Amino acid sequence: MSAIMSEGRTPRSAGVSDVRPRLKLVGGTPAMRRGLHDIVVDDGACQDHENSGTRRIVIVIHEAGESVLPAPHREDEHEIIVAAVSGDDAFWAALARGYDGVVDLRGSESSTALGVRAALVGQFVVSAAMANQMMRGSATVENVPSAHELAWLARLSTGWSVLELAETELLSERVMYRRLAAVYRRLGVASRTEAIATVARAGLLDPRHVSPRP
């Protein structure tokens, strides 16, 4: 799969030894974990045994159709968290949910290994098709949510529940669900994950600026 390198998050490896990071795989089926393990370790990007003093890369596997979970808590500042997903919407949702990198499970072995290597240096890889879509401007939002509504989506992208969101807005959970559903309809999507992916793809979502959960 053709790919380009795009600037991603600040590398967490600054000042850390160049020793290959330890690999940890989370989620997915045993076959999926074994397949990713073999690709990444055989490529030389990671090692599969414990070695004290080295950083760690965690790949969180999401099966096709599964909602993208927020990036898990890092054990230390140098840990790299990568999402393995299927599809363009899931790709953008993963970036919006705080992952350092994303690999598309539909891609080739070489593109998967490249995605992991990119995350190690603070970059991410997108397919040529996705890059062309971005350059054509098709990743725009016609009915842009208000700043307040974008703040809702940003909070949801970092793991807030609808109930927590409702409490901060002094609303009932039912009313909060209705207001979010109205935002989804204006965006032309049917779910929270699609809404987050849509605004993230358009560059309207920055979860780093979200206040702590209540």
Concise account of the structure shown:
By secondary structure, the chain is an alpha/beta fold. Helices cover 41% and strands 14% of the residues. The N terminus is likely disordered.
Structure overview:
The chain folds into two domains: 3-135, Response regulator (Rossmann fold); 147-209, Orthogonal Bundle (Arc Repressor Mutant, subunit A). 41% of the residues lie in helices and 14% in strands. The protein has helices at 30-43, 88-96, 109-120, 128-136, 147-157, 162-169, 173-187, 192-201, and strands at residues 3-7, 22-26, 56-61, 80-85, 101-104, 123-127. The strands form two sheets. A four-stranded parallel sheet has the order 2-3-4-5. It has a two-stranded antiparallel sheet with strand order 1-6. Helix 2 (88-96) packs across helix 8 (192-201), helix 5 crosses helix 8 (192-201) and helix 6 packs across helix 7 (173-187). The radius of gyration is 18 Å and the shape is elongated. The protein starts with a strand and ends in a 13-residue tail after the last helix.
